[in-house]
Structures are given as C-alpha cells and as structure tokens.
C-alpha cells in the first residue's frame, strides 16, 4: 500500500533506471527526484527535470538528501538542505554537460578541453565543500574558486551572468535594482579578471583608496655547478638598485660544501628565501638579484704554497646578476616558480671586488672574466603579492621548506604598528656596512692581506652572543671575520652585516674592529696590528646616525689585551668624538695611527630607538621648560617614521603640556596634534590609524582638552574669511575626524568624572562650532582659490564626524546639525565645477553614513539631499556622482521597505526625482545615439557608466511605487498637456531601454526584472491613457507611443522563452509568468478601447503588430488575430477596400526578411505567419463572414504566395548558396512584385539587388539587361525625382541618361555590342535634340568603336542546356519546372552538369529524357534532368545573306534566342536491315522560353514545348542541304583569295564528301528513296524526292567547282591527292549517272577544264533556315579510358564545328549490329581550323566509364553506349592548361557555316520498337584535346579501305589529338611535308585484325563524314 513519505522527500539518482515496469519513471544517473509516496521498496514521485510526469522507481536507486518541505500536501515544494553554492554547481554542471559535447562537434577543441578541465575542478571543489572538513577560511576560499570558475564557464558558453554577493546568488527581490546592477558589474569584472573576488563591489564615494599591495620574491637555489673551486663557498643573494647604486635588501646566505651541496645536510632542497615588502614603486626600479660567491680556503686558489692547508680564509671568488625587469613579465604571467641560470663571473682585479656587480651590469667586460660553460647558479624565482598573512595562507608549502625571511633595508613603504597594539613585530636592527680602510705598509716589501674581525660588546666588556648576522638563512654568530683581499693596503669591502641587538642591551654597547695581517708564509700567522671601535649610542641618548663614519685606527699587537675595555673606551672613536674631548694624554697604552683610517656606514631600522634629538627633547620636555615653545615648533621637522614609533608617548606628552598651561601652549599643541593626525593620512602610515583609535579609547586621559580643542577649531574657522594664507586652516579641516574623536572622548571623560557637569556649555559650544562651519561654507569662494580649498577640505572631512556626534546627541539633533550645514552650501549656480564635485561627494558620504540609515534622520535629511541632486540633474552636471548617491538612497530604502516611513520617503522621491530622472535619461540616450552615429560606436562613459546607473535608479524608484504613489502622481498633474508630456517621456525611455540594449545580453536577471517593472508600470499608466486621451481628447502621438512600446516589449529577445532551456523557462514563468502574454492582453484591451479612432493606426501599426504575430507564442497570436480583422474591417468601411492594409503588410514582410541577420528562427516565424494568413481558421472564418469575403480571400492568397517567395529568398541569401540560386530567387521575387501585386518601388529595389549579384558574378550582359528594366520605366522628361537608393535627387532625364551610360558600359564589358548600339543611338538622338555636341561626339565615337569591336574582337558562342528541377525539395521558384540555361565560356555539358550537382548536392541526376511522372514530381527529394539543346535563331534574314561576315552571323545565331530544340532518332515500323535510312525518323522537340536569352538571367523557364516527327526523307533532304550550304561557304572563301595559301581545309572537306560518296554514302539515299517500291508506297513524297535529287545534283555541281578551285591553289606536293580526288569524283558521277543524265555537264573539274567560280556558284539560291540545320549525334555516355570526362546524360550538343565524329564498331549486336550507329548524321569540318592535322584513334566500347551519368530508358542509349567527344571545339573545362592558349587562338578564327543541331540518340532500337538490351562491344575512334602540331603526322588517314572498318560503324572525328600509344599495328607518327601530309592519301598497309581495345593517339584532324552506310559491309 502506498503511504506518503515524511522524511524521504528528495534524492539523487545513483543508477540509471529505464522504467521497464508499468508506470516506471525513466531516470538518468545524476537526476534529482521529488518523492511523494513509498511502497515495498519502491518510491512514487517526479523528476525535477519533468515535474509533470509521475512514476515509480526503486528505492535502492536513490540516494536521499535532507530537504526543507513547504506547503505539505498536493502542492508541496521541496528545497534541498545544502549550501546553495553546491546546488548551483550541480545544476550548472548538468547544463554545461550537453553544451560541452556540442563544442567538440563544432570543432571548438581548445574550449572543449579547457571546459573539461574546469568541470573536473568544480567537481573536486564541490566534493571538498560537501566533506565538511574545511575551516571557515578554507570554505570561503573554495567558494571563491568555485564562483570564479562558474562565471568563467558561463561567459565562454554564452550563458547568463549570475549576480552574487559573498559567493551566494542574490535574490533580485531582496535588493534594490541599483544594487543588483552593481552586482552584475562586479560579477562581470570578476569574470574578466578571473582572479579578483566576485563580491568586490565598486567602492562607494568617499571611500579611501585601497592599500598598496606589497610584493615578495621567493628565491630558491637549486644548484651551483662548478668544477674548479674545490672549496667550501658562501653564496650571498641580495637585491640591488642600479639606479641609486645601493643594496636595498638584507643578504640571504647559502653555505655550500666543496661538492656544491649544502654544508648542513638538513638544508637539502631547503635553500630558499623570501625577499619581502617590495612596493609597486620598487617593482619599477632598476632592480637586480646579485649573488656574491665567497670561497673559504687557501689564500690563492691554485697555489698550495701560499699559506698552510689548515688555515682557511674568506676569499672573494665571483659574482652573478639577474635583472628583475627582464624576468618580471614572465613571472607575473606564470604565477609559479620559474628557473633561471646565473653565470658566475670572476674579478680580474681584487681591489675592484666591491664594484664587480656594477661592472657586470654595465658590461665592463675588461674588469671581469667570463665563466666556463659549467659555471652557474641555478635558481628559481616566483613573484607573490599580498600581506604576509595572505602569503602564508595561500602558499603553506613554501613556509614548510625552512624559508628564510629576508627583509628590506629600512622600513617598507607601508609601516605596520607595533605588536602590543595590533599584533605586528617589534623591530630593532642595525645594518652595518664595512666600507673601506687605508692602512700603512709597515716596512714590508709587499702590501698586507688584511682581515677585519668584529665583536659587539656590552658596557661591562662582555661579548654579546649571537648578535651578528651575515645573512638570513644561517644562525647568528658572536664574531665576524671579513673576507681578505690579497696584497691590498686599501681594501674596499662593501659587505653588509646585520646586528640584531636586543633593545635592553643597546645602550652602553659598542663595536670593536680588530685588524690582522694574514701572512702567506709557512706558519700562516694572523698578526694583529690595529683596532677601531664605535659606541652604538651617543651621550644625548640618540643612536648612531645613518651615515658613513670614519673611525680612528689605534695601533696594537698580539700582546695587547682588551680585557679592560675601559682602557680604550675613554679614547675618541672618531673625529666628532675627538672634538668633544680635546685634551687626551699621549701616554696611553693605545696610540692612534694618524695615517690609517677605517670607514663604516650604519642604518638603523628600529621601532623603539630614535636618532632624532628634537623628538627626544619633546619626550623629555620637563628637562627643558624654557624651550617648550621651540620644541613644539620643531616637531614638524621630525620624520614620520620616528613619530609613529613613539606615537603614544608623543600624544601623552602633548596633552600633558596642554594641561600644564592651556593658554600659553594651547594653540601650539593644537597645531602639533593636527600635524600628527594628518601624518596618519599618508598611505605609508595608514595602518597606524588603529593605533590612534586604540589610544583615544584606552589611553587618552585629557578630560579638559575638549574645551581648548573646540576653541582653537572655532578660531581657525572664524579666521578663514580674513586670512590670505590658510594652509594651517586647511590642515585643521582635514584633521576634523580625529579632532572630534578627541573632543568627544575628552567630554565623555570629563562628564564621567564630574557626573555630567557643564553639559549645556558643551552643547552650546558645539552649536557655535557648527555655526562657524556653516559660516565657512556660506562664504563666496569664486574669487579666492585659497578659500575654495578650505571649503573643500571641510566638506571632505565633515561626514566623518557624524558617528562621534551620535555618542553625545540624539539622531534627530545630529540630523539637524547636518541639514543646516548641507543647507548652508550655495546652489550649483553660484559655485565652480570642482566645488560641485566636492559638495556632492560630501553628500554621498553623508548618505553612506550610519546616520542616514535611521529613518528619523532620513525624514530630516532627504529633502535637502534631493534638492541638491535635483539641481544638478536639471543642469546635467556631475551625473555619475549623483547616480551613486541615488543608488545608495534606493538601497537603504529597499532594505527598510517594511518600515511605515518608507511610503513617505518614496512619495518624496517621486515628486522630486521622477520627472527629472526621465529627462536626464532621454538626454543621455540622445547624446549616446548621436555619438554612435558619428563615430560608429557608443561613448563608453555615456552608455556603460551613466546610462546603466540612471536606468537602475529609475527602475528602483518605479519598483518602490505602489497604487497610492501612482494615484498621487497622476492626480498631481495640473493639465492634460503635463500628463501627455510625462507619458511620452516615460514611454520613450522604456522604448529606448529595449532598443539600445542598455544591459548586456547575458544579464538575464537584470533584463527580466526590467521587463517586469516596465509591464507593471504600463498597467498602471494605461488606465490614465484610456481615461484622458480616448474620446474627444484623442491624442495620436501618445497612443502611437504606447503601441510602439508594447510591440517592442513583446519582441524583446530576453522574453522569447522558446529558445531557452526548459528548466530556465520554468523558473522564469514561476517568478514572472509569460510577460509577453500580459503585455499582449494589455495591448488588445487598449486597442478595443480605441473605438472609431482605430482608423488612425491603419496602416501605420500593421508592421509592428505583424512583428508581434511573429512571436512563436500561440496565445499571443490568438490575441492579435482580432486586431488584424479590425484593421481590415475599418479600412473596408472607410475606403471600400483594404488596399492599404495589404500594401503595408507586404512592405513590412519584405523589410523583415531583408533585415534578418540569418538566424534560423526566421523560417520558423514566417512559417507561423503563413499559417496565420493561410489555413488559420480564426482569421479565415472572420473573413468569410464579412461582406468583403472575396477580397479577403484574395488578400490571404497574395500574402501566402509572397510568403513562399520570401522564405526562398531568405534561405538563398544566407551566404552559403551559389550565385545562380540567389539570382534565380531574386528574379522570381522581382517578377512577383511587378506582375502579381504591382509594387513598383519594391520591384526597383530588387532590380538593383539583382544587378549587384550579376556584377559580382561577372555576368555583365545580364546586369545590363537588368538595369534596362528600370531605365524603361523612366521617360525623357524633366520631372524631378526624389533621392532613392544610391541615386541623388535629380530629374528623370538625368537619371535615365546615367542609367543608359551605365547599361552601355555593362554591354561593352559583356561583349554584347549589338545590344549597346540601339542605346547609343537613343542617347545620340537626345543629345542632338539638345545640341549637346560634346556628348553627341562622345556617344557616336562609342558607337563606332562598338562596330569595330564586332568585326575585330573574337567572341565565343555559348552552349545552351535544358535543366529540369523535379521534386518538392527544390525552392518554390524552381520546383517542378524546366529551364534553359546559357552556359559560361568554354563550359561543356559535363562541366555544366557537375556545376548543377554541386549547387544542389542533394539532387540526383535522372537517367532518361522522358518527362517525369507524378511520383517524382510530388516526392520529398530533388531530381535534375539535364541535356544540351540547340538555339533556333530569330534573325533568319541575316543568316541567309551571303555577304554578311560570319562574325556578325555568329552573334545572331546565339543571341535573342527564345526557341531551342533537340532531336532524338528512332525507327518507326519494320526496319530494313539492308538500308536502315528507310525507317529512321527524328523526334524533334522545340522549347519556347518565357524570355529571350540573354536577358536578366542566364536561364529562363520553358513556357511551351512542341514535339514534331521528321520523316526519313525529310531528314535526308536536311542533311544534304546543310552539306551543300557548308561547301558553298568554304569554296566562296577560297574563291576570293588571290594568292596561293594553305588549302588543307578545302582538301579535307572535298576528300570527306567525295570519298564517302564513292563508298556508298549518297548511294544509300538513292537506294532508300529513289526505289520504285518506295515511290509507289509514298505517292505524297514525290515533290520531296525531286527536291532530294536536285540537292544531289547541286552537290555534284558544287563539288566540281570546289575541285576547280582546289586545282588552282593546290601545292605541287599535294597533286597526288588532287588526282585521287578527281578519280573518285568521276566514280561518284558515274554512280549517279543513271539517275542524273546531265550530270557530266555540270562538272568541269572532271575533264580538266575550268569555269569561272562565280558562274558555278551563281545558280545556288539561299537555303531555308531549316535546311541549313544538320543533325549531329552525341551519345550520353563517357568514353572509358579517355582523358576527359563525358558529357552528362541526354547530351544533345548544339555542335558548332564539324569533324566531331566517333567511329564505333560492334561485332556482337545480334541481327543488326549497324542498327544503332548507322543513324549518325553528317558532320563537316570548320574552315577556322586551317592547317591543323588530325589523327584518329580507336577506343574500346566494351564498358562504360564509371564517371558517366548515363541515362537508361526506352528512349535513351544503353549504359554501355560510347559518348563522342563534345560537339564543339569551343573549349572544355577538362582541357589542360598548357593547351588552352593554342586552343583559344584556334577557336577565335571566323566560321562560315551554320550551326548544326544536336540530336539525342536512343539505345539500339529493334524492329518492334523495343530497346536492345544486349550491350555493344565495338571499337571506336575518338580524338582528344591536344595542341595542333603540324609536325605530328598520321600513319593512317581518312580514306579507309572497306575491310579496315568493323561491320556497322560510323565515323565522327573530333579536332583533338591524343597522346601516343603503343598498339602494335599502328605506325608511329613521322615527319610531315608542308601542307596536308601525303600520308593522308595513303591507306593502312595492313588491316587491323580486330577492333582495338585501347585508346590510340592522333594529331588534330578535320575531316568529313557521311552516313556510315557509305562503308559497305
């Protein structure tokens, strides 16, 4: 039985559960569950991810956690009882996990691995928090690390910024908006810095700047590598300032043995030091780490004779340096130890040892020697920041390594007070430097080796133990031995020794220095020869001064005794001492050596001893009663370090003196006190302020002092109006805080001692003091800079006295004091800007003070504070400080919001601030907008700082307002104009808030809170809007502003809940609801309230409301539908139609698409709109109920059609689509605007978009045609036109002229001069009518140049391709349509097909030419059907004129073409196996386009298709007619030549026709159509048969003329070829003699006679266009093994060159092997290829190329069919680059033939019309691209013996050359003769044994072919 759980309420899934039981809840590991019930090992509950799905799950799969349950029962909520940051880490890691995987998918690998590392760190930190074993400090540190990582990850993943306080997520309901804004700023800074704490708030105004952070260097010696010393060494490390030339730190000593290891084994891995207390200023100095190496051993390293082995001396060895500045950057970035190698240099001259480090730094290489490679100190360095406690806490491992603390010489920049007050160290260190000495030689021949020994002795002569330190890291010692400089009587040591002498032993102690000569003789004695001494403290009680001291040297020897120290202490130690005791007897034991001297320098760092005489005199003032005035006056000259050391003693002394004689010393004591207080304001002594506070609270005893302090202070203030110099007054003002502390504490002591006597006198004195303060502040300081500074000092210090006054006065009394003082300040108008800042800073500190937190004081102070802020905001001055003050006020008000007084305070702020806040924001935003427009970016100060601050202030105020406040606000407006102005302001500010994005996109908490406040405010204000501005007082401006605001609000990105995660969406809806719906209801309600005024918002609000409908929220759309119906209805009532609604809707739809930035949501939103205006029931139902039903439905249809096109346009414009797709889509949309909805302006816009696309794709002709559309809309009139797009304001004539010039320019770039010429003429006509002869001359010259270009420049004829787009996956403008496309230059079918497949990578190439069925048309896929087509020119007359140059004809053949065709051969009826031409029909398809090509696009849709069948006889007529026309053109070309030239083309052409005819080509036509049976069966064909006969006769006649021309120009070496042609021509005539009896009369060439060429050709009349065409076959398949790609399927190339012939063979085709291939049409040579040589190669057709796109169906060739080479030689993408130039030069020659049509041939057709399924296996000859090479000759030519060819073959020879091959039966090329090679006449000596199976090479050959029937079986 299921029972409700009591404790088990919340748990975590520890094992995934698949829900395999009935009602099982599917759970993933890590999910959290809320548990409702329990039953026998099962729980029932929900996952927190899907709280609406209940189910059961096993108990043992859940780990229970403690939780707080509220509202127990059906609607209970459960919150886990754990640290909130743990919960946040858990939720964040779950959110990151899915995003983290996506990073890898999106190839953001770097962030992927970084995030993984951070996630692992977070898991580890979370585990530490949950362990419960951390101290409070550790917990805080772990939380800091967690929040830094959470914010970093959220930032890099684009997630929301989380505002925090003390590492906890703040609840936006609990704090003011201003504080929330500051927390967002703080969190953002923590993300950017990644090191600073997250909760670091921006310091409040007046807060003291942060203390400087000390720096510390951690140094660790890793090793010292050296091979040559072999002795123990001491290494001294120190910090050296090169600029000042002095050491700034103590020394760190490392003692090493001769092997390089530490002398003390315990020091292994522990040779490290911390150089402490370096300031930021120190880090900028030229610092070096200097390491001095001192060896301990023999006198000379390499001389064992110098001194005995048992005596060891300290001897200098070497030095190393490292520049801190050079490594500081890397140390700062690394934040961990980094190793460095320091080279150790040795000194060349020991006398310069003290300067070796300087010489190394200066690189004075002559003074030191470079080390060998093995010498070096390896150290590691690390830079640490923070005070010592922080360093110890953060780096405990460092301190566990026996760290040596190495201090700075002297005090650090920030001095800490002594330990007994605030817990810091007492310090008493004397640093002594052995500088130098000058000693006598003493009768020796060489100089001495001098060693100095030093002792510290007490007054009783006892040597003080452990008071000498050579360096940190080693224990102190009792004596010091200096290093020895070899043979130097004037040694320079420069060695610093630290003397940590106890304070109680300091007085009376002295130092003794003993000088010994270290002999290097065998005995090695150290002989004492002198000494010096110095006491540590002078007789006056001061210590040894920080200076260089020259000490007297006294002679002595080893026998001298120092047991009685009094013997020498009575002697003078130095010159100053000598002056003090001049009468010294000369008979003493120790005699001074006047020629010898010894120098030391000292520096004292002590917190208890002083070197200052004036300070000692003050502390002992009673000893000098007559000097008190002077002593007090000299206190100012005592250094600050000395004063803070003796602070308590000095203060006690001052107040004792004050009590002793107030009248005499009062003012001086006051000045001294002011001096000391101001000293503590220095950052160096800032830490002594607590010492002062502690002194005042616990040690101060001046009960009467307050009277004198008040009196002096008042006197200072009263004098401020009169004195010119006011430095002392300003100092007193700055010391105001501590003066009041002394005053109040003194009064408390007095009151305590006297039981409250003189209370009234005290109060009145304070009031008088405040009157003096007000007097100072009220003075006019505009003309006195001194007085200005005094007032500023007073204002700065004034807020600091409030806490002291509160000890003596009530809150109200203090508030009155403050109000009076603040009120006495002059207004902004009367003072300067600098004073403004000081005044506001004082007010800011007042607001931040404890006084302002009391509601009693706020009631008094708030009016005066608001008054000053109001004045500044009105004048737009000091906005940033004002915003800070307001933020503090709102923060206090929010925390006190439960108090009753807050209502009154908010009312006060609304009255004073609301209007001025709105005005300020409007001003700031307008400035920001203007600067953004000018500079392209926003002013950082305006937007980031001020705007955010003031927005948060305004929102804070609005959030605090309740119904009462709004009611009072609205009631207080005196007139409707005032209310209107207010509403416009606040609506405008709200709109700008949403438009300007004041808060960054990731500040989601801030944005949502802002939206909530706005919608709440709008709900309050909408009633006032409806009440005051609806009926007779309707105001369009206010209502329009309201609607614009509502629309902007609903469209805010931060409110689009659909794009965020479900968990976040639930949180937002639980807290705020869907605010879009709230605003939509408000919008709808206000719209309904408009009544008849709705018409004012049509069509203006259509676009904005349309934007609301795009929000993917069903409820919002349902709310908005009636508004659209209203709009249509109201316009219908007013105008009888709703054209305005329709037009505006279309405009807005288009602009919304155009402005889209490419995000994917657009398609979804438009899809929703399509539903809205398409099949959406609500709107259609409303429309259908109206009288204007038909118009409404038409409207919906138009919008829906536009939507489809706009969606396609949106998708294509994303940037990833190809230019063709974009152009096609734009054309489609442009035509829609023109033809369907007649929107001229939109039409023109898209014209220019299309033109720009063409220009980008370099389609200049198409760009010109596109601009021509706009040009045609304009007239040659002077009508003015407004500025539009990039056109300026100008007349219509000027714009049309500019367009014409631009169009002409584009036609010129596109080489379409024929299209440009009419425009030139039109412009010329205009210029002529205006007598603008200059422009007329220019345009005429332009026209003339175009004619020249036509005749002189080469142009390539393009190919044309038919493309069918089938399937619903294509864009709307292509779907299930067919187009004809104009190919690019050199683009062949296969290249075009590849291009199309790359543009549509999802498409499949169809394998047959048949029209697709409905299954393909309606499927969700893409199918492409592509084949080549032949243009049918419109300008037939031009093409039929004989004298028109071919370059002119060439243009008209392929331009202005609207019709295209392609042919497909097939057999109808039974097929004659003997002669297949009897049944060979042609299926001719003609395609008519919507527009001619070229045009505004490179492709146009097929408008109409016609299918015609051509009979075999008609086909024969066309073939012969086309050949005759070509022969005539070629012969005509040679007839007009006067000189002999290369006639290879004529030779080949004649050879091809005559040879084919002799071998049966034309004879097959005779057999087929002149047979009596055929004539009998086809009586209707009599006329056509006669026409064919006439054409054959004409061909014989033309051939005769051609042979006559050939005979005239033939080269002598080619005579054998001519003779062969004559013989074959006679055979041809003979074969035709019986059919044409008069034939012999027409052939003069046969008899050797010649007739004039003109007479021969005169009888030939122009042929019809249709008869000019010839059919040429292209197989749709690739050639296996050839070097080029095949054309695509259904290739019906429009072949423009003859000679594209493939010789195909098939020996296994069954009954009729020739069925397929005998249908190949004639192909003829192009005269442009003069002089080129062609070989023929053989190709196997046994298998198809895998790269081919063969099309297989009942009407297509089988997949094994061989494809010919492309039909024209204009170029192919597969042409190798090295041949391209020669090929282009060849192609640019003129052509004199008509363009033959392409045909598409099917598979082998059997008699029954079925496709032959048996694959052919024939050999084929095909040519490949190669540079024309006259030197490469064929060994076999065009005249083949019949036995050479396989049965059933046809011949198509391309003008290409293949590479040489190695087939044994082919003879290699040999050198050729000039002209056509003689080998062309020869035949193969041996026939091939079989059809070759490989590709064989041939040189370029142009020959002719006739039907394959010419090759008899």
What would you say this structure looks like, in words?
- The chain is an alpha+beta fold and 1913 residues long.
- 44% of the residues lie in helices and 14% in strands.
- The protein is built from 62 helices and 44 strands.
- The strands form ten sheets. An eight-stranded antiparallel β-sheet has the order 25-24-27-28-29-30-23-26, with no helix packed on it.
- A hairpin with a 5-residue loop joins strand 38 and strand 39.
Bin the helical content.
Answer: 40-55%
* End-to-end gap: 100 Å
| Spatial order of the strands forming the largest sheet | 25-24-27-28-29-30-23-26
Strand content: 5-15%
Contiguous uncertain segments of 5+ residues: 195-209, 418-424, 933-942, 1156-1170, 1173-1178, 1639-1913
Structural class: alpha+beta
The total strand number stands at: 44
Rounded to an integer, what's the Rg over CA atoms? 54 Å
Mean pLDDT: 76
Number of helices: 62
**What summary fits the major beta sheet?**
8 strands, antiparallel
Quick one: overall form?
A: extended
